[in-house]
């Protein structure tokens, strides 16, 4: 069976400005954010990309969501190539990040309709989906409130609802619980498990071990832009905790963490 996500040899470099070269204490004109990254996500599973800050997680997810192009390599989401069919990729995925970027002057109701229209969802289907998602997240009472006037938790719930307005079969989620209070973080993790229950495929990035342990079927450890391990949690950890296994991998890849 074709995996829902297949990444093959992804590579991405960024040009470094003089200021960035100084900050990074390097003479190199380019920073390699992701190097020769390959992995697969099976239909219906939750796969976690686990890595420290700057490991290349966001860059990887942005390539897979067809927001930026790889320098080389390719990836296929439900068979659509991120290089040759980015529109096909965008149709089939929902992309979400905990860095909220909802337009603050609009209401949840307006934003949901706007994104549904972008995805050519018929009004009757849109309204039924909006009703169920707004009920799921307790958004109904705030549906007409400007985003600017919502609490951080409610903003995140609106982001969640809007990002799955088109009922995507693959959901790509960058740092789903970063910066959220414990209650909102729980809403997010519960929702991820619900989506999995509906047969959706989920790829998330995180640096939080407990999130991987709680929701992921398999995970890939990414350090310095490279995949250093990939497998089920048992395969990754053996008889250690995920945290201990990660620090062993970190030590072997870059040396002592402290
Ligand atoms: N636009 C850019 N220009 C230059 N370097 C960049 C750019 N974006 C990211 N980088 C660098 O590429 C590397 C990978 O960054 P990326 O954001 O993908 O990592 P990450 O694992 O998501 O980390 P974080 O959790 O800190 O966001 C980092 O060293 C980062 O500084």
How would you characterize this protein structure?
This protein is α/β, with parallel strands linked by helices. The protein is 39% helix and 25% strand. The chain contains ten helices and ten strands. Strands 6-7-8-3-9-10 form a six-stranded mixed β-sheet, with helices on both faces. Helix 4 packs across helix 5 and helix 6 (152-163) runs parallel beside helix 7 (182-197). It is globular and about 55 Å long. It starts with a strand and ends with a helix. The mean pLDDT is 92. The structure holds adenosine-5'-triphosphate (ATP). Adenosine-5'-triphosphate binds at residues 14, 16, 20, 31, 33, 51, 53-59. This is Sodium ABC transporter ATP-binding protein. Residues 5-249 form the ABC transporter domain. Its main location: membrane.
Cα-based radius of gyration, to the nearest Å: 19 Å
Distance between the termini: 43 Å
| Secondary structure category | alpha/beta
Quantity of strands, as a count: 10
Give the H and E element order: EHEEHEEHEHHHEHEHEEHH
Beta-strand percentage range: 25-35%
Instruction: Name the poorly predicted regions.
Output: none
Question: What helical percentage do the residues reach?
Answer: 25-40%
Cofactors, ions and other ligands in the entry:
adenosine-5'-triphosphate
For the largest sheet, list the strands in their spatial order. Answer: 6-7-8-3-9-10
Global morphology: globular
Main β-sheet, in a few words? 6 strands, mixed
